[in-house]
Design brief:
Blueprint: H1 9-19, H2 24-40, H3 42-48, H4 57-74, H5 82-89, H6 94-106, H7 113-123
Length: 136
């Protein structure tokens, strides 16, 4: 196995799934919840998007839609193989959204303490996107 500092996000995603196979459904559900949240609030997010940020709202929503499509198309199949799960969520640019979802999930009561520690160790504890919606 590679040292953690030499792993890319695909390796890290697979490692997390292999360490916690019983949590894969919860991880997938956390990603799905984030997809739903962003899709339901898309107009508000796009209106308030910081234009000088690292990436655009269009790019972020491309990532959201990719994750949403993967879940819709492969929902139960993804849970059978950690590598396949990682290939879909942690390869290339898709890892940006999945990593953000994991870090957000680790901040919830639903995330088990051991999984929370693993997420923080493997992926860090700072969300990649700081989200605040203006109340209307």
């Amino acid at each position: 196995m590679k040292a953690l500092h030499k792993m890319d996000n695909l390796d890290r995603g697979e490692l997390l799934c292999r360490l916690f196979p019983e949590e894969m459904a919860n991880i997938q559900n956390a990603i799905k919840k984030q997809c739903d949240y962003f899709l339901q609030n898309e107009t508000d997010f796009r209106e308030g998007w910081f234009k000088g940020g690292f990436f655009t709202a269009d790019f972020w929503y491309w990532l959201v839609q990719n994750a949403h499509r993967v879940i819709e198309k492969n929902e139960d199949k993804l849970l059978k193989k950690p590598r396949w799960f990682a290939d879909h969520f942690f390869d290339g640019h898709n890892s940006i959204f999945a990593t953000n979802c994991l870090i957000e999930y680790a901040q919830t009561e639903e995330c088990t303490p051991n999984l929370k520690q693993a997420i923080h160790l493997i992926f860090g504890n700072e969300p990649l996107l700081k989200v605040t919606l203006n109340d209307k």
